[in-house]
Amino acid sequence: MTTSNYHLQQRVEHYGVPIVDAQAVVVLVHGRTITPEYMNEFVVQRLEIENIAYVAPAAQGNTWFPKGFLEPLVENQIGIDFTLERLETIGAELLAKGISPKKIIWCGFSQGASALCQFMATQPRRWGALIAFTGGLIGPPGTQWNIDGDFAGMPAYFCTSDVDPHVPEFRVKETGALFKSAGAEVKSEYFVGRPHEISDAEIAQAKSMILQVLSTSI
Length: 218
Known about the structure:
Helix content: 25-40%
Shape: globular
Strand content: 15-25%
Structural class: alpha/beta
Number of strands: 7
CATH topology: Rossmann fold
Number of helices: 5
């Protein structure tokens, strides 16, 4: 563990049932300038699913990395590295508690969704699902990524809108295509006129995916 990693020193909020009683765990990763409480209000409370534990880490200053996710990597690299270590630590802690990886769902919004896409691409395995609300892999246009591993049919959801000021459609399409090529079962949606928020249609898709994880034996 890197002691200089400021994200590791931040709080982690818990919603839903205790992890020990949960049938699945959802890791919630907030976006830039928002908080775990946002994810509770706009994701957890709208999902209305029982028997789920939610784990919601906070970033230092409510920001996982300093610049936009399409900026040159050098502008964000330290923040990205610290964020990936924070996510890796959370995953390792859940696995150490005996939670099957197929019962761990990773869900992020905006910068948090992009952080999760990057994390999954660097640590591919058969998790329960990836829900990337308005996010994609990190790097400027023309970046080439390589996923060295197999998602083995992991459901993955990617979305944005045609008017989103932060996450263009081309990056979501690139991300979905790369995850599909690495064995994920990808669904992508592109909304017309949807502002930078999580819509009811996206919540419905996330709920369907989580319920599918709950119904699947390990």
